[in-house]
Task: structure prediction
Amino acid sequence: MSPSAPLRVGLIQTRTPATHAAALEHVAPLVRQAISEGAQFVLTPECTNVLQKDRAKLLPTLTALEDDPVVNGLREIAAETGTWIDVGSALVRREDGKAANRQAVIDPTGAIVATYDKLHMFDVDLPTGETARESATYTPGERAVVIDTSLAKIGLTICYDMRFPALHRALALAGATVITAPAAFTRPTGEAHWDVLLRARAIETGSFVIAAAQGGFHEDGRGTWGRSIAIGPWGQVLGKLDHDEPGVLMADLDLAAADTARAAIPVLKNARPFVGP
Result:
């Protein structure tokens, strides 16, 4: 790709069902739509492969990443079309038998070339009465990941990670100019914080932030915010779905804008160590 050519990305917004077979049937046409509209890099949301909050129903259905039918279905599409596909996250069984919330980047040959396990677990009691305990189901990751693709250096995050600026700074310092933020964000926190958090992460790192989201009310009873969004390194909104319905958001990323933003406000260079209070 020419250095001056924009990177065309497709963000997939889903309402993932509670079974793997239905999830693949749901997401595959949306991924194909994005590719037909010129996407060179496609990002799907958190929990692309299944969305089921009942642990007793979910855990027996999980497989290793390489055996997951949704991931393998998307690998086939990547190889068939010669497109990078980032499975924003798949809920999978780890090698030790525990569960992981794992992002998987698929190259144009269909190979999985990078994975990232969600670092930060969303354990909270919301004022609405809704409770989340991700750590009861998933083992958190231990490492940040930047992948040097043929398109750009891309840093990987998942959902709740967006509330932790240090992770995004580390990704930017490692060379990432695009940061993924696949999510299944709750509706109360989404309405209050979704846009502002993602724009802040873009501004403070001088990076593009692309956030593909789950949206609407799901079979398992949960509600997610939707509003998938692409943000430039100056904090500008490049595109947004203003709803929670399944769909595709296309955005063109002028990657040179990251260097321009970082030169104008060199926070990555100007930070100093300090003694805490």
